[in-house]
Amino acid sequence: MTKTNPVLEAIFERRSIRKFTAEPVSKEDLTAILEAGRWTPSGLNNQPYRFLVIHDDDSRVEPLAECTKYGHIVKAAKVLLCVFLDKQATYSEMKDHQAGACTQNMMLAAHSLGLGTVWLGEIINQQGQVLEVLKLPAERYELQVVIALGHPDQQGSSKRNELSEYMLEDF
What we know:
- This protein is α+β, with helices and mostly antiparallel strands.
- The protein is built from 7 helices and 4 strands; from the N terminus they run ααβααβααβαβ.
- The protein has helices at 6-13, 27-38, 61-65, 71-76, 93-96, 100-112, 127-134, and strands spanning 49-55, 79-86, 116-120, 141-150.
- It has a 4-stranded antiparallel beta sheet, with helices on both faces.
């Protein structure tokens, strides 16, 4: 595995972080992360993703924490980045629901800035409740993911299976 390329380095080194320091995330860093999400590829260049930034002092944090079994992470984050699909900007329901590229762009950007993130996907099981807390219309927006963000207060760790375990055929 080569690590001489900064993009590959970021991919191989990024880990999920669930504990954060009290240090705030700068507006400059937040802007860079959101720009990385904005530059996500999309079919027909329809750009269907919308973002909502919630800081730790926002009154919506506590009710959002109640929308997931990972509420302790929601409360620990300095910032929550909510990624939505704008239903009015879609052209293919299945393709546009693949928000992974947008989320990965933002998480890699955060990592490159020395910040930590974790992808909170379980919260979408309570989508109606989340949209209600955020006062967003369900007929227009669909929650894709919430990213908890902050300065890391832990080392992340991970392991992966061998590449051969993923391959359906030799290449």
